[in-house]
């Protein structure tokens, strides 16, 4: 069976990142954007990360420009924006597509593992979230409107 650990992505610097490095951790994967109405969720995501990172919890932010062109910057611009405006310290990947013909394999797997409402597999908007347990399996999917702080209880269950 496929798990998170079977995937390699590119980090924000364009370097290969084997997600097997996250073995044994609880992971929240989020498609992020700098110019979205939900961009303020960066603050809540960073707060969640700070609260649980010492208990083997990590957030992986995946910049995506597929929804309203709300992530137009280069990887360097995205990294600077996140650091300077939101003090983000959790890891970011290079820009990805989460739907369509060029969707990243990680996102295809997560959507198939945890379909949305009515069994829909597509990601609807920025800041959709997937919670992955210590075994590397997707256990929960959250809509863009779900505030990071409301996920804390579910994160704790898996720590």
Automatic annotation (TrEMBL):
Residues 1-159 form the Thioredoxin domain. One of its GO terms (molecular function) is thioredoxin-dependent peroxiredoxin activity. It comes from the Eukaryota. Keywords: Oxidoreductase, Peroxidase. The active site is at residue 36. InterPro entries: Glutathione_peroxidase (IPR000889), GPX_AS (IPR029759), Thioredoxin-like_sf (IPR036249), Thioredoxin_domain (IPR013766). One of its GO terms (biological process) is cellular response to oxidative stress. It catalyses: a hydroperoxide + [thioredoxin]-dithiol = an alcohol + [thioredoxin]-disulfide + H2O. Pfam families: GSHPx. CDD domains: GSH_Peroxidase (cd00340). Belongs to the glutathione peroxidase family. This is Glutathione peroxidase.
């Amino acid at each position: 069976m496929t798990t998170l650990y079977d995937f390699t992505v590119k980090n924000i610097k364009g370097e290969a990142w084997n997600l097997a490095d996250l073995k044994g951790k609880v992971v929240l994967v989020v498609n992020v954007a700098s110019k979205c109405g939900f961009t303020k969720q960066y603050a809540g995501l960073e707060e969640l990360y700070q609260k649980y990172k010492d208990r083997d919890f990590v957030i992986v932010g995946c910049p995506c420009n597929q929804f309203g062109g709300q992530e137009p910057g280069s990887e360097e611009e995205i990294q600077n924006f996140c650091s300077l405006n939101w003090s983000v310290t959790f890891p970011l990947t290079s820009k990805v597509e989460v739907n369509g013909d060029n969707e990243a394999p990680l996102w295809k797997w997560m959507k198939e593992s945890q379909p949305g409402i009515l069994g829909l597999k597509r990601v609807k908007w920025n800041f959709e979230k997937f919670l992955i347990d210590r075994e590397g399996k997707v256990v929960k999917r959250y809509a863009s409107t779900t505030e990071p702080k409301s996920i804390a209880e579910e994160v704790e269950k898996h720590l």
